[in-house]
Amino acid sequence: MILKHYFVEKIAHSSYMLMGEKVCAVVDPSRDVDTYLEEAKKRGLRITHILETHLHADFVSGHVELAEKTGAKIYMPKSAEAVFQHVGIEEGDEFYIEDMKINVIETPGHTPEHISYIVTDTGRGDDPIGVFVGDTLFVGDVGRPDLFPNRADELARKLYDSLFNKLMSLPDFCEVYPAHGAGSLCGKSMGAKYMTTIGYERKYNPVLQVKNMDLFIKTLTENMPGAPDHFSRSSKINALGPKPISKLPQMKILKPEEFQKASENDSVIVVDVRSYHAFGGLHIPQSYNLDSTGNLPTFAGWVLPPEKDILLVAETLDIAKEAVLWMQRVGIDNTIGFLEGGLHSWAALGLPVSYVKQI
To answer: Which of 114, 158, 305, 354 is 20 to 30 A from residue 278's alpha carbon, by CA?
Structure first.
């Protein structure tokens, strides 16, 4: 058994490849799946299993595209009621990936349909070596139960059971593989480490020291940071089956006059991903500014109207392409054009500009 961890900055997303001698699984994959395909090819492995712990709210998963490109089966909670082809699984289910035994336990709380995968490397022993916990348990924190506002108390109660009666029943040496790290809004205050153990969290996770259920619920449902608007949208996209990135509309390179004409359509917005200082000095009137060096995906998901097409202003085409990928990771798929030559080419033609006074 070989485990490889991947971490996507800005959305603080962890995914994993669980590898045997000839086949492997990908757990909670990112939307852009080429990294997994390249790793499998390099190692001479076939990707046969795609394991999802829940319907992710903070990012769009790559499960559908990865399945299309590899023929792998998607394993998801049966209660998620996903509409694409998948294997619906529930508490008590068991399957093997070579000599790695996977046991499924239901761990609702962060979301109603959440499951975790307990892994036993039977070639080494009979005890579990690790557990993929999704957003149920983090390093120094636990998943937030308030993404369904009218069900926060109910889900916090279920999370209590998932943590104390299920995950904490695993041995101390069992490794914990969460789907997020520090910087994610799926919890309050995650630690900077990517992985942990049941024993360490049992002893040092501050939330797990709150054994009284009523106090636990109060602790989890008070003073929680706001959830960006795209959380509910991404969850629905993941249930319906995201479009593969390769099949999304391609961003066209537009000359300033073409860009101006396209921007006059009411269904279009202009998004400028240059720095705040550059934007303040000169920008296209009515454009949004989301600095590509900051937390672009989270703020894009928070403020951009999802029904609008996007025209992009960036310093270079490469920066624009990177910005498009960050937005696609949170389900904003409709970038249709890039301003050729950047704002300098726009201003050189005497087209309308504005500025913001800065101190």
So the answer is: 305
Give the position of tokens 């500009």.
353
Number of helices (H), then strands (E), in the chain = 11, 19
Ramachandran angles phi, psi of 238, nearest 5°:
-65, -30
Q: Which residues pair with 6 in a beta bridge?
A: 15
Does residue 296 contact residue 320 with C-beta atoms inside 8 Å? no
The pTM of the full predicted model, rounded to 2 decimals, is: 0.93
Lowest mean pLDDT among 11-20, 191-200, 219-228: 219-228
Q: Which of these, 213, 159, 46, 18, lies nearest to 102 by C-alpha position?
A: 18
> What's 257's DSSP letter?
H
- Across 273-286, average pLDDT: 95
For the domain spanning 248-348, the CATH number is: 3.40.250.10
Cα distance between residue 7 and residue 30, in whole Å = 9
Domain 2-240 superfamily per CATH: Ribonuclease Z/Hydroxyacylglutathione hydrolase-like (3.60.15.10)
Bridge partners of 201? none
Phi and psi, residue 161, nearest 5° = -65, -45
